[in-house]
Amino acid sequence: MESLAEIVVQPPHSATWQVHLDRSMWVGGVRGLMLQALHPLAMRGVWQNSSFQEDPFGRLRRTADFVGRVTFGSPQEADEIGRRVRAIHRRLRITDPETGATHRVDDPELLLWVHCAEVSSYLEVARRGGLRLSEGEADRYLREQRASAAHVGLHAEDVPGSCAEMDAYLKHMRPRLKVTPEAVAAVRFLLWPRLPRHLRLLTPAKPAYVPFGALCYYTLPEWARRMYGILPEVPQGAVTAALRAFRAGMNALPEPVHERAFMPATRLMLQASRDRLAAAGYDLARGLKGLTDPRRRPPA
């Protein structure tokens, strides 16, 4: 029988599974993009090297695929996607229009900002939405995410591994952040996205997305919302209530229904993970989320 380390990158009882299986991740993902956009060089890197303007959802789904593979995939799958991402980043460059200087996309400072904006958003949104994690479990989540950071080329010891370290890092970065025209455009795209060609049939339902985009925006830190100033402020108690309602509704969806939002390759990876875990003796009667219950672990 395979060992657990050979089956998945993170074990089912990890803090990472608790956070990454929570459907509030969709809000956390968009919030993370909005936060990342406040770093001028990081935002220009996205603007100059991706199709974000035409397909913001594509970027979100590709991020979901990466997160899924380094959480639920096999070690081989995680290593493979890490090599792929590092290879793409190595060949991309960013031109700073203010100075004319050229920067590497895989600059450690940029990679660290993108990582921290992303994982801090996942954690903050999940906990605010009602996921019960103790301070120790929240710290453990960030420590576990150092492995994810290593897949994109960062040194684990350089990445915040506790809530206190993450708070200190974000405070340190705030003087370097700026609202650029690209950042404003990116947030407006995320609030009212232009649907890609293959989703144009959904255009009549597009207004239903607006409350979701606004919810993502309002979960940003107060200082970030103040920097953007795109939407008027609303009571944060109402934001928390809306987030909890969204999370409850999404968490009620059966796994097969929810996973239709992912790319086909992501769905295949998740099914392969289920198959490996079932072969190792795990009870998947309640799906992947059910495995976070210690009682669902196979006998030693």
From TrEMBL:
This is Uncharacterized conserved protein, DUF2236 family. Residues 17-248 form the ER-bound oxygenase mpaB/mpaB'/Rubber oxygenase catalytic domain. GO terms for molecular function: oxidoreductase activity. InterPro entries: MPAB/Lcp_cat_dom. Pfam families: MPAB_Lcp_cat. It comes from the Bacteria.
